[in-house]
Each structure stands twice: as C-alpha cells, then as structure tokens.
Queue: 4 jobs
Job 1
Amino acid sequence: LTGKFTQKTTFQKGDWRGEQRDRKWLLDLVNQVEKVKQIIGNSMPLYEAALKFCLSSDAVSATIPGARNLKQAELNFGISDKELTKEELAKLRKLWSSGDTGGLKFA
C-alpha cells in the first residue's frame, strides 16, 4: 500500500516474491491497489486508509501493522484523526464483499 510495487517491479535473487512461476499475483495486487486508490483519492495515504478500514468494523478494536523501519512504525502510530467518509467506507466495503480481490486469496 505504499505504492512501491508496479506492474514492472522486479525482485532480487533469493526474494521469494521473485521466485513465483508467474507474475499474475503481482499484477493482481497492483490492480487491486489501483481500485482502492480510485476510491480513496488523495484524502489520505493508502496505508492509513487500510488501517482505518479495518478499524471501521465493530468486530475490530485494534490493528497490528507491520513496519520494516522506525519511519514506518511512526507513520502507523501517528495516523490522523481524519476518518474515511461514509461514501469511501461504503465503496470499500462493496469492493471487499464483492470478492473482487483481483485473484488474491486471504486467509
């Protein structure tokens, strides 16, 4: 959700993501992120929208986001008080419940 993956992204030797037989998973992921970007626009960064979407559910009281470095941890910890709009939430929920995850599988 940082936008660093594109359809042309390659991975270094030894990175499990580069060892997949085909790149369909990456293309599906990039396409799915693009759909979310269309809904969110510039209202907030994607990582923040993802956390807020999870927290918008009554079944969720906390999230445990990953961070590879201090800056990412600080960004996750400091998400703004700005909420997703009702329209954004409705569109995201519709996208999620439609099962249109671009071929991605979630456990």
Job 2
Amino acid sequence: EIAPPQNSTEIFSFDKGSCVATGASPERPPALSLYPNPGNGSFNLRGITEPIRVVLYDPLGRQILRRDFDGMQSTESLQTGSLAPAVYVLTVQYQNGAQQALRWVAE
C-alpha cells in the first residue's frame, strides 16, 4: 500500500507487511515558470525567490549552459544562442539541496 505524503519532506511511504521504506527530500522548491516555450534563442525564468543554479542539457544529456542567479531578480533571461530544434531539460538547483527539472522546446 502506498500512502500519500504526510508532510512537506516525505515524498513516499511504502508499507508491505513488516517492511517499511520511507524517502525524504528537502523542502519543495518554489514554482518557476519558463517562457516563451517553445522559444528560439532565449528564454526567461520567472518566480526566482532565492539563489539558484540552472543547468541546460541537450537531448543527449550534455550540459550546454550553466548559470548561477543570486535571487535578487524574480525574473532572469538566459540566452541560448542557436540551438537545434529539440526538447531540452533545464535543472534548477537550490541551496537547500532541492532540485527541479523543466522542459524547454527550442524551435
């Protein structure tokens, strides 16, 4: 039986007879919006409320961009240059260890 999270740090609880496994993660990250999506040449991240590191990966998992933001601006723009049309993954890493992944489509 899988039980829903009981607090903001528990991500799952699995009970199978006498065996119980529980996973935990840092506090949930704030909601970020990524726009325009799809886009071409750049995108914006809105909702930044604390220092973060963002890393953009191509469809093969190669890191193509990495940038740190201090959290002083709630919206930041990232220039991507001429990327091939594809789906890219943007990971957001927070100081407390939380991570978030967003998809961005380059046209």
Job 3
Amino acid sequence: HACFDCDIGTPISALAERWPALDFGALSEIWWPQMEEPAEELQRRCAAFRIKAAALGDWRHVAVVSHWGFIRGLTGHDAHNAELVPFDPMQGSIPKDSIGAHATGAG
C-alpha cells in the first residue's frame, strides 16, 4: 500500500532494463497503488497471494521480495529491512486486527 515514500516502486521498463534476465511480464508498467490501500483490500490481496502461492508445487523453493506491510499481512510479523521471513501458504490467515492496524499506518 502506498502510505510512505518507500511504497513507491520503479516502472517495469526501468526494472527490465536493469535486470534483463528477469521476467516482469505479469506486472503492469506502474505496478504499485497510487493511494493508501484500505485494510480490507490488503486482506484480499494477502488471501489471493496465499492461494496462488499454495498452488505452486515448489512453493518451498520460492523467494518472495515484498514490503513490510504485505509481509505483516501474510505472516503477522513486523519484518526489518532485508530480513528473511519464512512463509507457509498452507497455514491459516492472519487475524484482521493484525492487518488493519498496520494498513492504516499504526504500529
């Protein structure tokens, strides 16, 4: 969600130029939200990601790079910069109050 300057991404064209071996085909040129994301939308995104991740046969061998708000929404953990956080998509969802407090900038 776009609450802070660190939530603003880099356009896909610039990322593809910098890392030509990576496939950015699944993302739009501007892939980050233009406004603060409501807690309910973050919950929906986390649930959708959990379903997609669980469907991957090799999810145990997949690394996901994300921002702290989304990581907290998935795991309930307040991650530090560059911290490795285990994620098991087969585990249940995180309580709504855990996501909502963070998505509104609190916590």
Job 4
Amino acid sequence: SLKADIQGFEQKISNDEGVYWKGKTLAKYTNLMIVADQLEEIEIWNKLGAALKNEIDDWFQYDGDSDAKYFKYDKNLGSLLSIRPEYGHELLNDHHFHYGYYLYTLG
C-alpha cells in the first residue's frame, strides 16, 4: 500500500547518498507523489512534496565547508557537477541519468 511504501520516507530522502543514488531516491518518492495524487491522499502528497523540496533545495544551495551535498559549476568542463561524484559523473558520464532524476523531481 502507499502508506507502507512511504514508511520512513523523510529519513530515506535526507540520507547521505551521492548524486546518482540520491537522484534515484528522489525519483522514487516523486513517483509516489503521483500515486498519492491519483488516490487523493492529499496529506501524503503534501508531506512528500515538502520533503522533496527541502532535499532539492539543499542540493542547489551551498552551506559552507561542512556541506556534503551540492552542485557546483566546473569552469574547465563547462558543466554542473556534484561535489560527491559517482560513476564517472566528474567526467560528464551519464549526466542524462544523474540530472534527469533531479529534473523529474523538480517537475
């Protein structure tokens, strides 16, 4: 059930993952938001939306030296990169996967 699928979602959304796995987690809960909308589970939709927004905001905001998750612009590559690259992300490998999850969540 939807309620079982979202069990502990706040901790899962905000856990300490790299750019790829975090994107997959965000996309999963974005999909569950769509299900919540279709089932008219407004409270669940609102909770998921708030948690996803907070996490996305965190990735697009630098909070100082202790910040472990954010994107930065690399002038040499001319691209946005994660401070915690995975799977060749720092070499522009699979950006369509990495950023696709974030764009999907932003939508």
